[in-house]
Specification:
The protein has about 150 residues and is of the alpha+beta class. It contains seven helices and five strands, in the order ααβαβαβααββα. Bound molecules: zinc ion.
Length: about 150
């Protein structure tokens, strides 16, 4: 249910595990314990179970993405060095890739306008800073200054 939030947390560089529908609460609690993860959820029952097991939990009540991000970022700080370090699809840490190796594999305009590129080994997807990096830093500014709607 929180797919957009998960994607943005990855953009910000957080190691984000996104649960699929087949996982039970018990599976999630187990993973959170073993991997020392924070559970972020709308599911009141899951949140309660997590609290009982001394797992760090963040309960999401807002439906607005920016409000959700604001809530999370108030509790866990973004490390600016890690922004755009992960694949937004699969959470894998991106590897830098030489410019010469991406030629012909991405739009020419993107190739011409960027010198640094990253690659997800798992999804075979290319990343570059481009204009969306500005969008991301703007988003961090926007979120950290924003008041949560009641
Ligand atoms: Zn990936």
């Amino acid at each position: 249910m929180l797919g957009s939030l998960a994607k943005w947390l990855r953009i910000f560089g957080f190691d984000t595990f996104y649960a699929n529908n087949e996982m039970t609460d018990e599976d999630l609690l187990h993973i959170a314990t073993i991997e020392k993860r924070i559970i972020i959820s709308r599911d009141k029952e899951l949140i309660l179970k997590g609290k009982k097991q001394n797992i760090n939990v963040i309960e999401i009540k807002n439906t607005d993405l920016n409000d959700q991000l604001k809530l999370v970022l108030n509790l866990i700080k973004v490390d600016e060095k890690l922004v755009l370090s992960r694949c937004t699809l699969c959470n894998t840490i991106l590897k830098t890739i030489e410019k010469s190796k991406v030629e012909g594999k991405i739009p020419k305009k993107v190739f011409d306008n960027n010198d640094e590129f990253w690659f997800c080994n798992k999804c075979k997807k290319f990343y570059w800073m481009g204009s969306h990096y500005k969008k991301i830093t703007d988003k961090i500014d926007e979120i950290t200054k924003r008041k949560i709607k009641k």
